[in-house]
Amino acid sequence: MVQTNPLSTGLDGTEPAQPLALFIFGVTGDLTRAKLIPALYSLFVDGRIGDARIIGFARRDWSRDHFRSQAEQMIRGQRGTAEQRQRFLSQLDYLQSTFEDDAGYRRMPDFAEGYRNRLYYLSTPPDAYPTVIDRIGRNGLADPEPDGYTRIIVEKPFGRDLESAIALNATLMEHFEENQVYRIDHYLGKETVQNLMMLRFGNGIFEPVWNNRYIDHVQITVAESAGVGTRGNYYESSGALRDMIQNHAFQLMAVTAMEPPNDTAPDSIRDEKLKIIRSLDPVTHREPASHIVRAQYASGVVDGEPVAGYLDEDGVDPHSTTETYVALKVYLDTWRWAGVPFLIRTGKRLSRKITEVSVHFKHPPLRHFSGSRHAPERNVLAIRIQPDEGVTLKMNAKIPGQSGGARPVLMDFSYGTSFGSGVPEAYERLLFDAMKGDNTLYTRRDEIESSWSFIDRILEHWGTTDVASASAPAPAHAHALAQYQAGTTGPDQAHALLGGDRRRWRTL
């Protein structure tokens, strides 16, 4: 198996992928249009994939030509010549079938004829995963061809609780080996997340202070200005805790807090991430109000436009108690992080779309300048994951003149200005890694199940492992659901999680 160095940046210096047949189940969905086809085309233009057959598998009455015309719209405006676009589109094919019909799966070898390597991408609704996996397996399509590979990429959400995640893993293991399974979390494919590891382990000035002696707390923010849009039905069965905390936020936390791995082999890195997930101190054993805030957005104004509240969105029960915002204060039972709170928040219809990790350092031991009208602030190292990828260090400088006061100044690194080129899209990196057999940036079975084990305790504390609705109202003891106005930074109750001592949430 090829193992690339995950601490390197971008896709430079790597050999192109071997010829392969890639089947995209649920190819007519939004993910294919917005991410998969554009990412595959970028890889093709860059020479990362050459001889490939990309087969869409879905129930819609599409033809091969219609699929190609749709794909042409998906890549419109991207770089590349007309000749490159036509060569890429000529590699696309379409197999019409329902996910339940074995006849469709029996036709797959004809579409993949001449290719020893096969990659399956599950871009279907989550409830179809077990069906597709089972049909692939029982039709003999999970076993690798001689001198080739067979791999499967499973999109999030991977289960909706611990029980369903274990069941889905069992279905996968019935037909595939663990090294064939790639559970995708696209946040790990973002260049800045990978740069977080480089920042820590590749710079001698940071690793010595990356511990509870010097760090006061860590904030992880995954904020969205958009609402649920057309995904109201899905969101009603999910909520912010399942949709963002269990996967994206916990992965960012694990990369931020993990110990240095012995080497850069995929399992060495994933072993260290797993230790962090397993070290989470359950918050449900303490007073919940000081560790968890859940809320739902009401109507408000975003980007100057009035927007509806969650209860008025399409597909949402008007009496729903589904949370669209969650803030957590968690602790890690490790030597390095003992006593350091990790403050995690995510929400929809907030004032700004931003994802970042910020490390807030302690004040110096002697506060020589604290009596000044402009007292020094905490040093903060902020790693911006999106939309403007980069790193900012806030430090204090003396204000010129006789005042003797301090003012925070920023040292800023931006990918766009420093490297003069755009940051590769996360799906480009992750798709290419799966083709190469590098699962470093994919989540392992034990990571998934350990994170769900923690999340299940919170769901049980809220009163049910299912999101409450009008037909299944939350019990009286369920954790209170606050409200916040769309276009703001979230509910006021979230400020209490920081515990005072001049701690403040980062401005969105």
Quick structural overview:
With 508 residues, the chain is α/β, with parallel strands linked by helices.
Question: Keyphrases for this structure?
Answer:
9-stranded mixed β-sheet; 30% helix; 508 residues; 2 domains; alpha/beta; globular; Rossmann fold; Dihydrodipicolinate Reductase, domain 2
Explain how this protein is built:
The chain has 508 residues and is α/β, with parallel strands linked by helices. The protein has 2 domains: 20-183, 3-Layer(aba) Sandwich (Rossmann fold), CATH 3.40.50.720; 188-365 and 445-498, Dihydrodipicolinate Reductase, domain 2 (2-Layer Sandwich). It is 30% helix and 20% strand. Strands 16-15-14-13-7-12-11-8-17 form a 9-stranded mixed β-sheet. β14 and β15 form a beta hairpin. α10 packs across α14 (445-462).
Please render the helix and strand layout as text.
Layout: E1 20-25, H1 30-45, E2 52-58, H2 64-74, H3 82-89, E3 92-96, H4 102-106, H5 108-111, E4 118-122, H6 129-138, E5 150-154, H7 162-175, E6 181-183, H8 191-201, E7 215-223, H9 232-236, H10 239-257, H11 266-278, E8 292-298, E9 300-302, E10 305-307, E11 325-330, E12 342-347, E13 354-361, E14 380-386, E15 390-398, E16 406-414, H12 415-419, H13 426-436, H14 445-462, E17 481-485
Parallel strand pairs: 1-2, 1-4, 2-3, 4-5, 5-6, 7-12, 8-17
Antiparallel strand pairs: 7-13, 8-11, 9-10, 11-12, 13-14, 14-15, 15-16
